[in-house]
Amino acid sequence: MSPSADEAARRAGAILTIDLGAIAANWRGLRDAGRAGGRPVDCAAVLKADAYGTGAAVVGPRLAADGCRQFFVAHIDEAIALRAVVPEHPIYVLNGLLSGSEPDFVEFALTPVLNDLGQVNAWRAAAQRYNRPLDAVIHVDTGMHRLGLGPEEAQALAGDRGRLRGLRLALLMSHLVVSEEPDNPINGEQLMRFRNFVRAMPGAPTSLANSSGIFLGPDYHFDLLRPGAALYGINPLPGKPNPMLTTVTLHARILQVRRIDALQTVGYGAAWRSARPSRVATIALGYADGYFRTLINRTHVHLGGRKVPVIGRISMDLVTIDVTDVPEAESQPGALVEVLGPHLSADDLAEHARTNAYEVMTALGRRYARVYVGQERAP
Ligand SMILES: Cc1ncc(COP(=O)(O)O)c(C=O)c1O
Fold it and tell me: What is the whole-number distance in angstroms between the Cα of residue 100 and the centre of ligand 1?
């Protein structure tokens, strides 16, 4: 920990520890899964939403140092920020080319993911204006019905490659709808549609698999894997043991402990009532930090090797826990409780909050002191 991070963590109400070594190891593991099929499959990193809450400005350069050579974000401003710390490698902007943003893409050497023929035309026109070839990704919609060229547009493009004059096709891509459900026939249908498109547009590198898609097997790997979630430790195989390493641990500090009698309520709305004389500790995080209100009376934290129930409503900045069964010496103001980490994963907390781990990670609070560990690269 650097002296300043150390200082911030010492006075912080809650501390988010991000293990860069674990994120890098997860990336290497996914890259190796791609290579295991015997083809030279490359592995990108999806760093949108601030690298799923872990800090793109730190994670990006770390993964680049470990050999990651292609990066995806959602917004152009995420890409511009990432360009400052990842100067050399392609950065693809998934949300596409918004009208008027061409000069920014060119200035920061960013690559738009072109999601319709209008964007293809605009980017081709930009290549003509700048009088030089510009890199482009073509996103074809194989079933998500969200972004990407629909079937007619895809056919029109394949039938007239002149539409891409002046553009260098960096990638053809599509996105899977239910990759976390290996038995769902939609996966195979999307695979077939993507293969047809790739056949009609020969010569460009191709990409289909997100994190869970990688685990659907080599048929889904194409030339480039595109994981986000699994890099950060989210389980790509729901319902099965998580093959990824935990990357974040969240500790919150006990601010105050009070004794209450039986039949007393705790917190807003009197949503929890003590069945016995109890000790209640108040810890320093809340819904303003991404600790969801739906966690009311539904989850726990860990303290001194014990599960400690979260009780009552989640406040903006405070959460109450029942430390009646924890020795007093271990549950004093200043003590740190584990909110998220090896004992309770983002997937677990998501289940308690009735959401998914993506939302838990991307909601991770901006008020936490952030401490990065595992900075040293494996030899
Ligand atoms: C187009 C695209 N590719 C890849 C990813 C990464 O997906 P995951 O986080 O499931 O690995 C996303 C994330 O939603 C995406 O939108």
Answer: 26
